[in-house]
Write a structure and sequence with these properties.
The structure is a homodimer.
Chain A lengths: L1 H12 L6 E6 L4 E4 L2 E4 L5 H12 L3 E6 L10 E5 L3 H11 L5 E4 L6 E3 L14 E7 L3 H8 L4 E8 L3 H11 L4 E6 L11 E2 L1 E5 L3 E3 L3 E2 H18 L1
Parallel strand pairs in A: 1-4, 1-6, 4-5, 6-9, 9-10
Antiparallel strand pairs in A: 2-3, 7-8, 10-12, 11-14, 12-13
């Protein structure tokens, strides 16, 4: 009957009712001086799509966003950050109370060892920039977690299953979404993704989906694994 | 009379009728590898506002844009570029036929000496990145120009008149718009600017204006100087 269908739909929609979900999204910027930085081409679309969908499914969503030009989805708490260090601090501030943590952010893995407060004056000669590693936020979350369901994203071009499985183990993740960026329609700035969902329970190749549909599929699988625990 | 007022307005609006105007806008990105780059926080707003206004005043506009998230204004020909080198090539391709060239782009002045086609694998240790100077597009345009009215932008925090005048001379500009970025409401990402207009004929401190109003003021002064020649 139609009533049953509507009830099903309503149940599906509220599958994350009462759950707290933290999502990191976008790139980070690592400043050399006030007008120069290192970054990467992440647009934040995947993380924002997940935040919108999670809120729609009833979750309380905290979205930690690097510098992106996207609007905050309805009913989502957004925390804006710039650098990997900022994002790390925000993530560590909010992770404890979460049920689910999804890391989609493309966090810079290197930053300039020195940051200048004033614009460097140009010189004619070459310039050596010493870079140092940033904190591995996902790994930190993996080693500190106290029951949170932790999901990572990986973009790989080869041996994607092996690298994905390895990353999941190294970083103590509960699931990983592996993006085959060598495939057309996947990767930075696209509206679609073709991914493999991998958890301790299952491994599943999903079809090419737009980021909103993919968010629904991912969150559906997360809510199922939460219920199974 | 009202008819006279309307005629005046129409005349003002078409002051750049038949003129070709090239504008560079936005930042450039200098890739280290496919997922890492150097850049700066330019949003392209000033250049896009100028392009919109110039087209509105009847000019044929070529807008050479770095990676920005802005829509192309009506009746503007847009050329998208990524790196300083791309922007240089496009600028040199189109400059000859122009009457006016306005450089608002925040072109990276350094780029990695080496670019990798594959994502660099992370290592635990520090990383030295060798940077080299990019071409000074504005200076190249200044030394090659054959009658084009060449306008530069400068962002300064101190001795702004002296630095502005010096830049105008060094780069063979016809005018320069000097942004006092130490003032509130001026600079990267803002919707307003407080500037000094400086040409061989005049020097004028303009009030705090939004970027669309400022574009009108700048283009009005350019069209006046073109007419005076």
């Amino acid at each position: 009957t139609i009533i049953a269908v509507l009830e099903d739909e309503a149940k599906r929609r509220k599958k994350l009712q009462g759950k707290k979900v933290m999502i990191t999204a976008g790139p980070t910027r690592e400043q050399i001086d006030p007008v120069r930085y290192f970054s990467n081409p992440s647009t934040g679309k995947m993380g924002f799509a997940l935040a919108r969908q999670a809120a729609d499914m009833g979750a309380e969503v905290t979205l930690i966003a690097g510098p992106v030009s996207l609007e905050t989805p309805p009913k989502v708490d957004r925390v804006d950050v710039v650098s990997a260090e900022d994002m790390y601090e925000s993530a560590m501030k909010y992770y404890k109370e979460q049920d689910v943590i999804i890391k989609t952010a493309a966090v810079a893995d290197y930053r300039p060892a020195l940051t200048y407060n004033h614009k460097m004056k140009k010189k004619d000669e070459a310039l050596g920039v010493e870079m140092e590693r940033t904190v591995d936020i996902l790994k930190e979350l993996g080693s500190h977690k106290t029951g949170q369901f932790l999901v990572g994203f990986a973009a790989e071009t080869q041996q994607i299953r092996e690298y994905g499985r390895e990353k999941m183990k190294n970083k103590n993740l509960d699931a990983i979404v592996i993006n085959d960026v060598s495939e057309e329609g996947s990767g930075f700035g696209t509206d679609t993704n073709r991914v493999i969902w991998m958890s301790s329970l299952e491994e599943e190749v999903l079809p090419l989906l737009d980021k909103q549909e993919l968010s629904r599929e991912i969150l559906h699988r997360i809510s199922k694994e939460l219920a199974d625990v």
